[in-house]
Amino acid sequence: MVLRLEDKMLDIKDKVLHLLEENDIKPSYQRMQVLEYLMCDDSHPTADTIFKNIHSKSPIISKATVYNTLNLFVKKGLISTMMIDKLEVRYDIVAGEHGHFVCKNCGKVYNFEYKYKNKYPDLEGFDIENEEIVLKGICKHCRR
Ligand SMILES: [Zn+2]
Ligand SMILES: [Zn+2]
Q1: Is residue 33 helix, strand or coil?
Q2: What are the distances in angstroms from CA 111 to CA 6, 70, 82, 92?
Q3: pTM of the model as a whole
Q4: Ligand nearest 104 Cα, by number?
């Protein structure tokens, strides 16, 4: 799913509830916390970062709950995952088609619009299920 402009006008809690229901996910308090966090942090955080931030505000949440919730969201197609360095999975509130630009200086991951319509003659007859575009370089803020 891609966040639309009109979504930004709604209260975040309403939006969180609505997204969970829309994706057939029972809206428990902890699931709402995880989704709300992701909606406010578009830096493609790791599960650990997500856990630490939520835990600092509500220490009752367990690491397992955060991991299970993230897995559930991915399975339901509500969020997506990406990897920067093969070691850590990053979680992404944007689940629709888009590419990533990783800045080698500040480490920030930027989303950009990308249409998956490439044809690969060498893969004729293959079934492509997943295409990841990761560009690396120096972002415009660091180039200044
Ligand atoms: Zn940068
Ligand atoms: Zn992304």
Answers
A1: helix
A2: 19, 20, 11, 10
A3: 0.78
A4: 1
Spacing of C-alpha 2 from chain mean position: 11
- In the reported structure, the alpha carbon of residue 140 is separated from the centroid of ligand 1 by a whole-number distance in angstroms of 7
Please give the distance, rounded to the nearest whole angstrom, from the Cα atom of residue 46 to the centre of ligand 2. Answer: 12
CA distance 50 to 61: 11
Q: How far is the CA of 103 from the centre of ligand 1 (A)?
A: 5
Interval between CA 137 and ligand 1 midpoint (Å): 8
Displacement of CA 92 from its chain's centroid (Å): 1
Reported as a single tens digit per residue, the pLDDT across 35-62 is: 999 999 988 999 999 999 999 999 999 9
